[in-house]
Amino acid sequence: MVDQHRPRIRLRFTALYAATLLVVLLSAAGILRYALHATLQREFDKSVLASAGLVQQFFRAEVEEYLTVEATLAHIAGELVFEERAIRIRKPDGALFKIVGAPVRRARRPLSGPVRTVRFALDPDLAPKWDIEVDASEANVIALQARIDRWFGVGIPLLVLCAAVAGWWLTGRTLRPVGRMADAASRIAPASGARLPIDDPTDELGRMGRRFNALLDRLDGALAQQREFLADAAHELRTPIARLRARVEVALLAPAPASDTSVLRAIDHELRAVSQHVDELLQLARADAAGDEAAMREEALFLDDVIADELPRWQPEAQRRRMTLDYSALEESPVVGDAALLPRLVSILVDNAIRYSHEGGTVRVRVRPQDGAVVLEIDDDGIGIPEHERARIFDRFFRGDAARLQRPDGSGLGLAIAAWIVRQHHGTIAVTGGVPGGTRVQVRLPLATN
To answer: Helix, strand, or coil here: 109?
Structure first.
């Protein structure tokens, strides 16, 4: 059976929310990373250009004082110092003339890689064909970008996890009315009048709940009409059948030819069968009208006494079929139940056991307290019930193939009534294989403690 309480929709919503947020954050992080990379590269290029520009400005300012290009550049090379920069001045023939800040540079560690080299003209007018060559380390830019990537790598999963937790909580709150409606729907019994709880009748869930409740109203109305019709029909049929039976019984008491007597006996037999079927239909109609939660007349009883009082009625039928009806194993078993329904239950089960047993067989009836329950077991050595038919044996009008061959006149309603009586007493009923070829019916009812 599928687990009905597994939060699959909640899980799917949370996963979809987290996945959507992850895609959004990754997209935003990719765009932001690209923009930051472009910005850092622009700033790096500006800083390289600014370093070369500072040398150019000093050159233009000092050249008038030192008169020659060589003297001016020699002075500048000793005065300027740049962090993470190596600036070289090359002559017009490309030869190295000076390294800006050379003594300081030699005392420092070399530039961290990777290093970008950019070449600029010193001053086309004052120093034609002299160049400034700038080596600039990109290590700081790369380190900053790596730090940003680590922030994204840690921050995005953390945000998605927090969002998933928040989404799970929010989805749970959102779906809480659905859970209450599902729990209420599982408890709604036919004709009980129970309906789905609705928190807000104006939202989508509220409209669905109102429409479902309206459907339940229509179904209850249809079921009520059906039950009323069945009860009325069964009740109306009982009166003419009872009159016919009375006339047949009167005719059987008067002297008549043998042929008439046999016909009357056959009619009486059929009328008794029809009367029993009508009684069973009426019993089920009343059970449907009342429902499984109908109040019953609860009395303190002993099931062993109920059985001992009911079974002698079936001794003549058992003797007619040369069968043994054994109910010697009756232990004291107190129950709380209906004094009219429990004998009916015993009668149905014993009738079935005798009806579908072979002549000369044995029907054993046992009752005993066991594990807080009263266990009633009825065993026969009759035709048995195939395992594939046992799941439907308590359905109305269902009769197995062997049962139809053994007793074509059965109605298939007796065990349905028995199951309803057991439910009314908060018990269970099951059919299993008994002795080889036979059937065992086991009923468990709550044991009365006081």
So the answer is: coil
| Integer CA distances (angstroms), 387 to 40, 56, 98, in order | 80, 103, 105
**Gap between the Cα atoms of 150 and 144, Å rounded:** 10
- Please state whether 322 falls in left (phi above 0), alpha (psi between -120 and 50) or beta: left
Q: Is the dihedral of CA 298, 299, 303, 307 positive or negative?
A: negative
Task: List the beta strands (DSSP E) in 101-236.
Answer: 115-123, 127-137
Task: Give the three-class secondary structure for 90.
Answer: strand
Residue that has been written with the tokens 């909580």 in this structure = 169
Q: Is the pLDDT of residue 1 over 50?
A: no
Report yes or no: 435 and 379 within 8 Å, Cβ to Cβ: yes
What tokens does 359 get? 């002549």
What's the chain's length in residues? 450
What pLDDT digit, counting tens, does each position of 298-312 carry?
Answer: 888 999 999 998 888
Q: Are 333 and 305 in contact (CB under 8 A)?
A: no
Let me know: does 447 contact 372? Beta carbons within 8 Å.
yes
Pair of tokens at residue 178? 């659905």
In DSSP terms, which residues pair with 443 in a beta bridge? 376, 429
Instruction: Kindly give, in sequence order, each residue whose CB lies less than 8 Å from that of residue 189, ignoring residues fewer than 6 positions away.
Output: 291, 292, 293
Task: Tell me how many degrees the CA angle 437-438-444 measures, rounded to the nearest 5.
Answer: 145
| Least trusted range by pLDDT, from 24-28, 62-66, 144-148, 421-425 | 62-66
Q: Helices 69-79 and 8-66 meet at what angle, rounded to 10?
A: 130
pTM to 2 decimal places: 0.45
Number of neighbours of residue 402 by Cβ within 10 angstroms: 15
Tell me which residue has tokens 């190596």.
Answer: 86
Residue 3 pLDDT: 46
3-state secondary structure of 334: strand
User: How far is residue 331's CA from residue 370's CA, in Å, rounded to a whole number?
Assistant: 11
Is residue 385 within 8 Å of residue 400, measured between CB atoms? yes
pLDDT digit string, tens, across residues 108-119: 566 766 878 888
CA distance to 21, 173, 259, 352, 407, per residue, from 167 (Å): 11, 10, 86, 59, 64
Give ∠ CA 368-444-5 in degrees, rounded to 5. 145
Q: Taking the chain, what is the end-to-end CA distance rounded to the nearest angstrom?
A: 38
Which two structure tokens, joined as six digits, stand for 140?
Answer: 């700081």
pLDDT for 400 beyond 80? no
DSSP 14-25: HHHHHHHHHHHH
